[in-house]
């Protein structure tokens, strides 16, 4: 096992990702959730982007329903990952249901980055279970520590939330089109804030993004028909890879090999690491 | 109490979405337009959450110490700092600006 590249990559991702569960825990209680609610999100929802979205809406004074809607929209990409992994492993019985729960950015990225089906499976479970354990442990640590801090603003925890969302967004801003979408959606949000209840501006931005995606798809199809290349704008697999040190190199190396023939050939969507330094 | 209900609803939805990928026939979701839209929605939501958390305060817009956090985090990201460092830099910027009496 120690020599298994899948397990090695999975374990290093688990450590890098699990650690920032501490920031989720602290921000969760700062947003107004209690310790148990914060822990429940990591245990049961277990998909970082959606969890941050949920507490982000609550922190802004949004309703529980708006928070749930934003979290659910951000979770849509996990369906794409599930489809990808199902094509790779064809899990049966309980493995399918357990595997679904740990189907996240990190476990999918680790799996698709391996070059044999055995290593893909090992990598998926090592990253999925490893992140699950550490993410939950550090969420609890952060939640209890955050609770003990007193006034969260005094410690700049609202600033930490801003930084966390920017940090999640940043690696996705590759190329002009994603940047344009981010700017338009940010502006749409700010313009909507005074006119609709808290939490709703985020859903307005999601709608704007969906329309932009629909329109830009038509345009890229036209460009492809005209012989120009199609710009990649698929949901990517590892939003943190270019920032979490160590992981970038390990993953990039395995990903390059994964694209060679002999991997399970799971089609083109979603392509991890595309457009990164690799 | 009602927040608990929405937490559980959102958790159930998150699991259902993950499981959905394993259960539906591949061709149903192998639609390039849908994949692209899933990508743009992710970017749009994260940009929106950044904006709301930086400038929103209920139904009004304010400029306070969080603006400093946004700028500091962007600089940290430009310098390729890891995620956890970015978060800490954001917190420190907001806390220091408040200590200095702004926002």
TrEMBL record, chain A:
Entry GO terms, CC: plasma membrane
TM region positions: 12-33, 53-76, 124-149, 180-213
Biological processes, Gene Ontology terms: L-valine transmembrane transport
Record flagged with keyword Transmembrane helix: yes
Alphabetically ordered keywords of this record: Cell membrane, Membrane, Transmembrane, Transmembrane helix, Transport
Recorded topology in the membrane: Multi-pass membrane protein
Domain of life the protein comes from: Bacteria
Region: Disordered, residue numbers: 235-278
Pfam families noted in UniProt: AzlC (PF03591)
InterPro entries attached to this UniProt entry: Brnchd-chn_aa_trnsp_permease
Annotated compartments: Cell membrane
Main subcellular localisation: membrane
Family: Belongs to the AzlC family.
Protein name: AzlC family ABC transporter permease
Classification of source organism: Bacteria, Bacillati, Actinomycetota, Actinomycetes, Micrococcales
TrEMBL record, chain B:
Membrane-spanning segments: 6-25, 37-55, 67-97
Keywords per UniProt: Membrane, Transmembrane, Transmembrane helix
InterPro entries: Brnchd-chn_aa_trnsp_AzlD
Protein name: AzlD domain-containing protein
């Amino acid at each position: 096992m120690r020599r298994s590249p899948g397990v090695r990559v999975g374990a290093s991702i688990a450590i890098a990702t699990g650690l920032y569960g501490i920031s989720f825990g602290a921000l969760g209680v700062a947003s107004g959730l209690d310790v148990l609610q914060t822990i429940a999100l990591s245990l049961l929802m277990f998909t970082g982007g959606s969890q941050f979205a949920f507490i982000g809406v609550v922190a802004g004074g949004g309703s529980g329903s708006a928070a749930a809607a934003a979290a659910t929209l951000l979770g849509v990409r996990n369906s794409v990952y599930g489809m990808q992994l199902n094509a790779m492993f064809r899990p049966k019985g309980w493995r399918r249901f357990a595997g679904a729960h740990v189907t996240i950015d990190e476990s999918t990225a680790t799996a698709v980055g391996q070059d044999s089906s055995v290593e893909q499976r090992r990598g998926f479970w090592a990253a999925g279970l490893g992140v699950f354990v550490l993410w939950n442990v550090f969420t609890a640590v952060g939640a209890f520590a955050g609770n003990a801090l007193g006034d969260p603003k005094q410690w700049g925890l609202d600033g930490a939330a801003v930084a966390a969302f920017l940090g999640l967004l940043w690696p996705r801003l590759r190329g002009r089109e994603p940047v344009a979408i981010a700017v338009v959606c940010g502006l749409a949000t700010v313009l909507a804030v005074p006119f609709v209840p808290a939490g709703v501006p985020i859903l307005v931005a999601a709608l704007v993004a969906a329309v932009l995606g629909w329109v830009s798809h038509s345009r890229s199809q036209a460009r492809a028909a005209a012989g120009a290349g199609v710009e990649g704008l698929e949901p990517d697999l590892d939003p943190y890879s270019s920032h979490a040190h160590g992981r970038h190199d390990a993953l990039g190396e395995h990903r390059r090999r994964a694209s060679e023939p002999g991997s399970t050939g799971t089609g083109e969507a979603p392509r991890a690491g595309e457009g990164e330094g690799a | 109490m009602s927040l608990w209900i929405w937490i559980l609803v959102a958790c159930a939805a998150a699991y259902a979405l993950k499981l959905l990928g394993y259960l539906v026939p591949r061709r149903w979701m192998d639609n390039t337009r849908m994949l692209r839209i899933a990508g743009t929605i992710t970017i749009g939501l994260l940009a929106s959450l950044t904006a709301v958390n930086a400038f929103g305060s209920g139904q009004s817009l304010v400029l306070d110490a969080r603006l400093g956090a946004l700028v500091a985090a962007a600089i940290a990201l430009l310098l390729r700092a890891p995620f956890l460092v970015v978060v800490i830099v954001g917190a420190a910027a907001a806390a220091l600006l408040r200590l200095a009496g702004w926002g």
